[in-house]
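Course assignment 3, question 2. Fill in each field.
Student: A.L.
Task: Predict the tertiary structure for the chain below.
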Amino acid sequence: MGAGMAGATAARRLAEAGQPLRVFDKGRGVGGRMATRRSDAMQFDHGAQFMRAHGTVYAARLADWERRGIVAPWAGAGRWVGVPDMTAPVRDLLVGIPVASGTTITGIRRDSASWHLTDGAGADHGPFTALAITFPAPQTVALLATAGIILPDIERATYAPCWSVMVAVDRAPAEVLTEPHEGPIGLMALDSSKPGRPPGFRLTVHAKPDWSRIHLEEPREAIVSTLTQAAAACLGTPLRFSDAEAHRWRFAQVETMLGKPCQYDPGLRLGAAGDWCLGPRIEAAHDSGLALAEAILADLGAPA
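Answer field:
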């Protein structure tokens, strides 16, 4: 369950091994925090801004995506972005795999040797031989609790929140990526400078974790006002904009991780994965999802 990078990677590996499967996600589309929002002619990557590879496995994945036009380099220093948006890599992983979007799984239960899921509308899904959960750690813990199950250590994983503001501006700043030292802004990206994007000038502004935590419950209008003013101060020029919108990420960036690839209980055929296992990177989510899929395949005795 979960159609972000971890869930999509796990699903792709299981599908390649010939396992029948189904993916459930509460979002309207796939990607998780690799998110893109569209409004009329405007488009914003309002979650993760770019990817990097530290290990050979994810580097090979990026190389394949680049060869097929699914990612492209951006802003130097080994940064990569999805094309035409940040959801593209996840959508590629999920090609040919059934995905139930807009489906919130609210409960799980074990019935003999099978798993059943209950969604927010009360519908039952199953039976399933094995269950992989790739939600943020707090949501994973809450879902496991509906079946009275605890997987070790997941509750130790913690996240920082983030307020993001999407701004359509009348001209581009000099820098495509800015990480201010002072003020509430942690990162400011010229979203429209990424390859394959629509015309126009658009900024995505991410607030710092501590600032976001303090202001987490404030109205969106107040967040837009504060962060657009801070962005103008960072750029050293008035920020004339035609449209601005805020998005609140409650589980934006991992602060405390488990330090292991995934959690899997072979007796229950139940596992969990996500960036909360290995660290606050898209690559970590990918590697965690892959590790969980390998654990499931080994347990099932499936061919490599």
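Instructor remarks: The chain has a mean pLDDT of 94. The first helix runs from residue 5 to 16.
Grade: pending
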